[in-house]
Amino acid sequence: TENQIDFTRVRNWLTECLEKHHQCKPDLESLAPNGASHPEVLKFRLLDLHQKCIVPASMHCRYLALSYVWGGVQGLRLTTINKNILFTPGGLDKVWQRLPRTIRDAIDCTIALHERYIWVDALCLIQNDLQDIEHGLRVMDLIYEGATLTIIAACCHQADDALPGVHPATRYPTQRLAEVRPGVTLAVHPYLEALLKHTTYTRRAWTYQEQHLSRRALFFIDNQIYFRCQNMNYSEDLWLGKRVHELSSPLLTLVANTKYPVNAYKSLLEQYTRRLLSNQSDVLAALQGVMRRFALKMKTDFFQGVPAAAFDSFMLFHSEPRSLLRRRKEFPSYSWAGWIGNIQFVQSLYEHISSSANSWLTEQTWIIWYKKSLLNTAHLVWEPKEIPHSNTVSQNDTGYRMRSGFPLAASLGLIDLTTLPTREEVGPPLRGYPILKFWTLMVYLEIVEIKVFDATAVLIDTSQNECGIAGLDDFEADTFFETGQAYEFIVLSRCALHHKSDLVFPLKWPREDCYHALVLQMEDGVYERRGFGFLHKAGFANSLKPGPVWKEISLA
After folding, report:
1. 493 φ, ψ to 5°?
2. Closest alpha carbon to 291 in 282, 281, 303, 280
3. CB 457 within 8 A of CB 469
4. For 227-255, what is each residue's pLDDT tens digit?
5. Under 8 Å CB-to-CB from 499, ≥6 apart: which residues?
6. How far from chain centre, in Å, is Cα 135?
7. CA pair distance 172, 152, nearest whole angstrom
8. Residue from 26, 226, 48 nearest 123 by CA
9. Rounded to an integer, what distance in angstroms lies between the CA atom of residue 406 and that of residue 133?
């Protein structure tokens, strides 16, 4: 590897992909067919490196995109105040030295690749115009998928770091060689995924969808470059520039080909929640393009980061081992987005078979979820008739069918199992998100044997018998779990017969006798989630007073 990039080699990699890899070509026409259906497309801008200014452009033109970590750098950005200068030919020359180094090097890289246009968020979205920012976020998946190539600054800790190798003498590469026997030399090739694993770039939430939605990417990392598309990988340090295949499926390929989108989205969220956000209110915005792709695949809308067609399944999450969940108040506690920390979903083997996943939703769940609007009216969370192209939903698509009702109603003496929300003349204080309204079984149990470092505990009933186990959320925030009171639990759904092994919650009872549950805390007239766990059905009849009761819940 030379001390400067051989851009002819990179152009050859790119040309081979463009000419030979049909699976790497974007289908933007089906996703953004015209400006009328996607008005955000009409506000698309690019840096024109011939005119040296920012210009309006079509998303169907040929352009590069930059993915990088800003890192708090005080560099120049597009604003309503300076836009007239930057929109004028030659405007970029006037502010060149004010641009962060990463952006300057990305522009020079684009020119060296003989390309004219590049998209950079800081210069193509008006940073002090919230509507313009929102328009950009809505089509972020189209921007990165539509790019001919995404430059990924994986080696940079912040936007003032250089892209090594763009200019002479800006990198000092070494190839790892070892002579294994006389005349035979072994070259060690580090896999891209291994290099990315511990970078600042892969620890930031915003870069997740930028990396994974790109059809082709040029990674700057470890003093060299890697080229990746949907079909192959190239790197500089391989002899004769031969291709190297890695066992890694780009997100676009995964979404397009998966038969199990529920499981795929859960796995994605488990990766995403390990990443960091400077502004916690960005947790859904930074994943908006990804959610749009899964919404199209699953033929459902998304509600607070959750696919509405499988809402029950996404209520079943807890912290990973050795990770505690802390509350993210800007979002509801019933969604993964309402929590800071590494989450882990309860995953059933049924989720690998769509018909069985639907059987679980139909036969083992009973809650009819309603969302209460700011006008104090209730609407179904999952209403297929309101989904675009709902007439194309088939029995093979994940989603609720006819419901079976709560299975233990008769044995518990429950008669009137209403599911319709009651009308409240005066509702609880407004939040910045919808409140869930629903009916289900509530039981009252004691929490004992708390493991303070793991935030897990044993649950006991009125006979002092062990009847469950739970993980406690926001455990260190207050003294809620120190009161020794009877805690309120709501029953969510019945466990599937075949679950993956769960080291966090090792159960002592058969799965078919266990149910998923949330521990709740009342706050400002509504409940909030404070934990998740598994209950044995014996704990229902042996609930502490006043349970068990069929109760209407308002959950924020």
Report:
1. -170, 165
2. 303
3. yes
4. 999 888 888 876 434 444 443 456 766 77
5. 346, 347, 348, 349, 511
6. 19
7. 19
8. 48
9. 45
In 10 A of CB 490, how many CB atoms? Answer: 21
Tokens of 97: 């030295």
Task: Check residue 31 and give its pLDDT.
Answer: 52
Task: Return d(Cα 212, Cα 117) in angstroms, integer.
Answer: 21
Tokens of 74: 């005080």
What are 132-172's pLDDT values in tens digits?
998 888 888 889 989 999 999 999 999 999 999 999 989 88
Are the CB atoms for 439 and 406 separated by under 8 Å? no
Cα–Cα distance, 525 to 260 (Å, whole number): 39
Q: Give the CA angle between residues 296, 301, 306 to the nearest 5°.
A: 105
Average pLDDT of the chain to the nearest whole number: 87
Report d(CA 530, CA 514) in Å as an integer: 20
Q: Average pLDDT for residues 367-372, to the nearest whole number?
A: 94
What confidence score (pLDDT) does residue 32 get?
54
Of 28-32, 181-185, 218-222, 311-315, minimum mean pLDDT range: 28-32
- The torsion angles phi and psi of 185, rounded to 5 degrees, stand at -115, 135
Residues 329 and 335: beta-carbon distance below 8 Å: no
431-to-278, 374, 447, 504 alpha-carbon distances in Å? 22, 8, 29, 32
Query: Percent of the chain having pLDDT more than 90?
Result: 61
How far apart are alpha carbons 514 and 468 in whole angstroms?
A: 9
pLDDT for residue 393 is more than 50: yes
In the predicted structure, residue 34 carries a pLDDT above the cut 50: no
Give me the count of residues in the chain: 556
Mapping DSSP to helix (H, G, I), strand (E, B) and coil, where does residue 139 land?
Answer: coil
CB 347 within 8 A of CB 300: no
Distance CA 281, CA 284 (A): 8
Closest C-alpha among 307, 121, 149 to residue 228: 149
* Cβ burial 17-47 (10 Å sphere, 16+ → b, else e): beeeeeebebebeebbeeeeebebbebbbbb
What's the rounded Cα separation, in Å, for the pair 336 and 311? 12
Residue type, 517: A
| Residue 514 near residue 348, CB atoms below 8 Å | no
pLDDT level of residue 428 (50, 70, 90 thresholds): low
Q: Encode burial over 328-349: b for 16+ CB neighbours within 10 A, e otherwise.
A: bebbbbbbbbbbbbbbbbbbbe
d(CA 254, CA 382) in angstroms, rounded, equals 25
Q: In this structure, what are the phi and psi dihedrals at residue 504, rounded to the nearest 5 degrees?
A: -75, -40
CA distance 254 to 55: 34
Which pair of structure tokens corresponds to residue 137?
Answer: 């976020």
245 Cβ partners below 8 Å, 6+ apart?
A: 232, 233
Cβ atoms within 10 Å, residue 173:
14
Q: Please enumerate in sequence order all residues whose Cβ is within 8 A of that of 242, keeping only pairs 6 or more positions apart, or say none.
A: none
Where in 188-275 does DSSP place strands (E)? Answer: 216-221, 224-229, 233-235
